[in-house]
Design goal:
Layout lengths: L1 E2 L8 E5 L3 H13 L3 E5 L2 H10 L4 E4 L8 H8 L7 E5 L4 H9 L4 E4 L4 H21 L4 E3 L2 E4 L4 E3 L5 E2 L3 H11 L5 E2 L1 H9 L10 H12 L7 E4 L3 E4 L4 E2 L1
Parallel strand pairs: 2-3, 2-4, 4-5, 5-6
Antiparallel strand pairs: 1-3, 7-8, 7-14, 8-9, 9-10, 11-13, 12-13
Length: 239
């Protein structure tokens, strides 16, 4: 791992890629735009870098020798990990969907411009900051409780309900905007941000799964509004 800057007062980005030239180019661009940057050539070096110094964001390649980026992201899922931006030559829709569904914040396909990379990094950091502020809130609806700080949903009798990352993202989008008709496109944007185009075929599946998990209360929670979208029926309280 090579440290490019040591200023602790700016966002710290860890670039993980087995291509030395890409690491150098990404590092130079990020440093020139006010970021502190460290690099790693593989996930072993990535783990060592994370043990030594907290980072605010990881830019992670997928195709690397040894443990690949997808496996590393999946391994870290559920931990207090920073947002992960995949930067990969794998640009097919199925690759993007898989990367986002296992926990990545954003997915960029190589080649991409410096402007796009910088905009994505800034968007991911803004999203994390906003999410951390919202995580202090707990949401209650129809006897249910959603606690973003620990990624937990409990039913009206206190039973913990398991949610995938995708289901959690969609439910959170709903509880933050109850009693409003939300279009499919709005839900995609709020649940997945700039990478919603890679997620659009999965949104209906996520909503169907959520309905099954929320059905135990006997109340209608998510209503389909014909030709318009979806409505989160119950009132929501925040505390």
């Amino acid at each position: 791992m090579t440290s490019i800057s040591t200023d602790p007062h700016v966002p710290h980005v860890l670039v993980v890629d087995d291509d030395h030239e890409i690491r150098v180019l990404l590092s130079a661009s990020l440093v020139d735009n006010g970021f502190r940057v460290s690099t790693a050539a593989n996930t072993r070096e990535m783990d060592q870098a994370l043990d030594r110094d907290p980072v605010n964001l990881i830019m992670l390649d997928i195709m690397m020798p040894g443990e690949d980026g997808l496996a590393a992201c999946k391994r870290m899922a559920g931990a207090e990990m920073p947002p992960i931006v995949f930067l990969s030559a794998l640009g097919e829709e199925r690759d993007r969907v898989l990367g986002l569904d296992i926990g990545a914040s954003h997915y960029l396909s190589k080649p991409c411009s410096t402007r796009e990379i910088l905009a994505t990094v800034r968007a991911a950091l803004r999203h994390r900051h906003a999410a951390e502020q919202q995580d202090a809130l707990r949401y209650r609806f129809a006897g249910w409780q959603l606690d973003p700080s620990v990624h937990e949903l409990t039913d009206p009798v206190g039973v913990l309900i398991a949610l995938t990352d995708g289901e959690f993202a969609v439910l959170r989008a709903f509880v933050e905007r109850p009693r409003r008709v939300l279009s499919r496109e709005q839900l995609l944007g709020w649940a997945r941000g700039p990478d919603s185009d890679a997620f659009d075929r999965a949104i209906d599946v996520q909503i169907s799964r959520l309905r099954r998990k929320l059905r135990s209360s006997g109340e209608e929670i998510i209503r389909t509004i014909r030709n318009e979208g979806y409505l989160f029926v119950p009132s929501v309280t925040r505390r």
